[in-house]
Amino acid sequence: MRATRRQRGFTLLEMIVVLVIIGLLMGLVGPRLFHQADRAKLQTAATQVKMLRGALETMKLDIGRFPTDQEGLELLRHKPQDPGIAPLWHGPYLDGPVPLDPWGHPYVYSTQPSKDQSFSLYSLGPTGKPGAGDAIGYLPLNGAAGASP
Q1: Cα 124 to Cα 101: distance, rounded to the nearest angstrom
Q2: What is d(CA 130, CA 37) in angstroms, rounded to the nearest whole number?
Q3: How confident is residue 147, by pLDDT bands cut at 50, 70 and 90?
Q4: What is the pTM assigned to this prediction?
Q5: Residue 13 and residue 74: Cα distance in Å, rounded?
Q6: Residues 98, 76: contact at Cβ < 8 Å?
Q7: Between vectors from CA 135 to CA 131 and to CA 136, what angle results, nearest 5°?
Q8: What are phi and psi of 44, to 5 degrees?
Q9: What is the pLDDT of residues 110-141, one digit of tens each?
Q10: Could you tell me how far CA 3 lies from the centroid of its own chain?
Q11: For residues 138 and 123, what is the distance between their CA atoms, to the nearest angstrom?
Q12: Strand pairing class (108-110; 136-138)
């Protein structure tokens, strides 16, 4: 009688075939996943701009104005130094620090009006560079950000 041998593990050829199949699947699915991640970052930036706009509008109801360029978005977190408006400030208007955009850059705030707001508030997008054409948010009317929302 012959003793039957049980095969243990995988042969090198089987492992290569599995790796090739995984590589092919990643080649087909990977780009779609990366595209979805890019879209998610764009949506996150747009949502954060709207959230910051809401906080700015709430603060304006309390103190009667939006932050100056020098005060910026930090006025949402820290009481103003101006004794005329400090008693009116009922913040902080954000639960945490002013967020960075999804690409790790600070949001740009300016008292220059945008098409929809009396201020500008936007992310410079993935490049983080003005004029690259990928800014998201309420852009200044003069086109200083170099892109449309």
Answers
A1: 9
A2: 23
A3: very low
A4: 0.71
A5: 60
A6: yes
A7: 165
A8: -65, -45
A9: 999 998 889 999 999 988 888 777 899 999 98
A10: 65
A11: 9
A12: unpaired
Q: What are phi and psi of 136, to 5 degrees?
A: -135, 125
In angstroms, the CA 105 to CA 145 distance is 14
Give strand pairing partners of 120. 110
CA distance 28 to 96: 40
CA 132 to chain centroid, in Å, comes to: 16
105 pLDDT tier (thresholds 50, 70, 90): very high
Predicted pLDDT at 149? 39
* Residue 68 burial (CB count, 10 A): 13
**CA neighbor of 55 nearest in space, from 14, 99, 7:** 99
- CA 124 to CA 6: how far, in whole Å? 62
- Other Cβ atoms less than 10 A from the Cβ of 103: the count is 15
- Structure-block tokens of residue 15: 């492992």
- For the chain, what is the radius of gyration of the CA atoms? 26
| Cα–Cα nearest to 57, from 114, 118, 112 | 118
The token pair at 140 is 């200044």
> DSSP class of residue 122?
E
> Cα separation of 52 and 12, whole Å?
56
